[in-house]
Design brief:
This protein is of the alpha+beta class and about 500 residues long. The chain has a single domain, classed as Creatine Kinase, Chain A, domain 2. Strands 2, 4, 5, 6, 7, 8, 9, 10, 17 and 18 form a ten-stranded mixed sheet that branches. A two-stranded antiparallel sheet has the order 1-3. A two-stranded antiparallel ribbon has the order 11-12. β6 and β7 form a beta hairpin. α13 crosses α16. The longest helix has 21 residues. The chain is globular and about 65 Å long. The chain starts with a helix and ends with a helix. It is found in: Plastid, Chloroplast. Its EC number is 6.3.2.2. This is Glutamate--cysteine ligase. Homodimer or monomer when oxidized or reduced, respectively. Pfam families: GCS2 (PF04107).
């Protein structure tokens, strides 16, 4: 039976912001993409300034169950993301490090709280609260959220064109700069914290992060680094059918290491070079392999929504949210939950909202929800924040480019894809592949992305200019930084805070 017929739908988003926002989860991700444009300032006039939104955490009663969930319901949930091409949208998310301009130290929660309050007051955002703490902001279909170490994230609205996406990025950066500068706070566009140790990073007052912080050291050596010292930029893209999802998922996974090379931007750690071009990407290889990686099963002939559901059912859970509290369920599976076997909530069965939240705790290089997330790129300066969605839109939203990618990668083996995943964070474009190097793959792929954007007809090719220079020279952003470090900066990593200040 379809989900809709089995639920008494009382749809509230996890941040309590109503149906329009339903689905922003871990790191404020947008759910199913609806038609949207940037909200005009005029449309917001007269709204109560700096209002507060009800609890940010997932509302456990968001979907009232009339019958227990079945696996078919979970499959139907993913399939409900299918939409016709004219309704495909682009959702861009990016994270950045806040720091004190005078000391370069990471900003603490009370400083972040003041920035959030300032943005709410001056730019008409609604506050998102967890208990008595403001932990994010919401405006229309955009949201601002905090990563575990205070990394500041914009989760953009689902937009129609890359022009809208880049305008949204720049509007956001203008706002945080306007508020931050008055407080002596700057923001850094880099993939890994270049100067400060883990012990120097503040901890944000969010319940789910406490559960993750306690669990991470049990399942990998680098999970805390992932939580507290990394920043990314990613794009979320739609699909029209199960077949379209499969094709885009495979193309995205195969090419994720190519994107990692093009956007590699995390070469420093604790004041010196760290031996990687993308330390952020490497960190994911030993964070928690139960929930990360290259998902080889996506390339199986049998793959589809149901196969992904089977995978997700066995990914260990982090938490269940009940009575405004996060309940630690680490190590249990959602499959156990479906059978009422969670000792922490004995006899309780999950809602669709629990499933939606669980999907946000899975971190592969490409993630499936009711859309696909491309997760392989380091954070960086604003032009690269606009280039990353342009790269993937040109490849995946154009049928000809998508088919070319699938043809190009169809005979790549599991071992070759995994080799690229492991080696590209270290050697970037210089990583050997068959009879050439990753640089040659990047040249070919970038041409396909440009051609795809040309055929879209929105004059969006210019957004790839920033990465054209990277690919044509064969020098990653990280290598440019390392060169500056050895020469102009005289081995002083502090200079990167000025160089990559937004």
């Amino acid at each position: 039976m379809a989900v809709a017929s089995r639920l008494a739908v009382a749809r509230v988003s996890p941040d309590g912001a109503g149906p329009a926002a339903a689905g922003r989860r871990r790191r404020g991700r947008p759910a199913g993409f609806a038609s949207v444009g940037l909200p005009p300032a005029a449309a917001r006039k007269g709204r109560r300034r700096g209002g507060a939104v009800a609890a940010s955490p997932p509302t456990e009663e968001a979907v009232q169950m009339t019958e227990p969930l079945t696996k078919d319901d979970l499959v139907a949930y993913l399939a409900s993301g299918c939409k016709p091409k004219e309704n495909w949208r682009i959702g861009t998310e990016h994270e950045k490090f806040g720091f004190e301009v005078d000391t370069l130290r990471p900003i603490k929660y009370d400083q972040i709280r003041d920035i959030l309050n300032g943005l709410a007051e001056r730019f008409d955002w609604d506050k998102i609260m967890e208990e008595d703490n403001v932990i994010g902001l919401k405006q229309g279909k955009q949201s601002i959220s905090l990563e575990p170490g205070g990394q500041f994230e914009l989760s953009g609205a689902p937009l129609e064109t890359l022009h809208q996406t880049c305008a949204e990025v720049n509007s956001h950066l203008y706002q945080v700069k306007a508020v931050g500068e008055e407080m002596g706070i700057g923001f850094l566009g880099l993939g890994f914290q270049p100067k400060w140790a883990l012990s120097d990073i503040p901890i944000m007052p969010k319940g789910r992060y406490e559960i993750m912080r306690n669990y991470m050291p049990k399942v990998g050596t680098l999970g805390l680094d992932m939580m507290f010292r990394t920043c990314t930029v990613q794009v979320n893209l739609d699909f029209s059918s199960e077949k379209d999802m499969i094709r885009k998922f495979r193309a995205g996974l195969a090419l994720q290491p190519i994107a990692t090379a093009i956007f590699a931007n995390s070469p420093f750690k604790e004041g010196k070079p760290n031996g990687f071009l993308s330390l952020r990407s490497h960190i994911w290889t030993d964070t928690d392999n139960n929930r990360a990686g290259m998902l080889p099963f996506v390339f199986d002939d049998s793959f589809g929504f149901e196969h992904y559901v089977d995978y997700a059912l066995d990914v260990p859970m982090y938490f269940v949210y009940r009575n405004k509290k996060y309940i630690d369920c680490t190590g249990m599976s959602f499959r156990d939950f479906m059978q009422g076997k969670l000792p922490q909530v004995p006899g309780e069965l999950p809602t669709l909202n629990d499933w939606e939240n669980h999907l946000t705790t899975i971190f592969p290089e490409v993630r499936l929800k009711r859309y696909l997330e491309m997760r392989g790129a380091d954070g960086g300066p604003w032009r690269r924040l606009c280039a990353l969605p342009a790269f993937w839109v040109g490849l995946l939203y154009d049928e000809e480019s998508l088919q070319s990618i699938l043809d190009m990668t169809s005979d790549w083996t599991i071992e070759e894809r995994e080799m690229l995943r492991r080696k590209v964070p270290v050697t970037g474009f210089k990583t050997p592949f068959r009879d050439g190097y990753v640089r040659h793959l990047a040249e070919e792929v970038l041409t396909l992305a440009k051609n795809g954007l040309e055929r879209r007809g929105y004059k969006e090719v210019g957004f790839l200019r920033e990465v054209e220079q990277v690919v044509s020279t064969g020098v990653t952003p990280a290598e440019r930084l390392l060169n500056l470090y050895e020469t102009k900066w005289q081995r002083n990593v502090d200079r990167v805070f000025e160089h990559l200040l937004y």
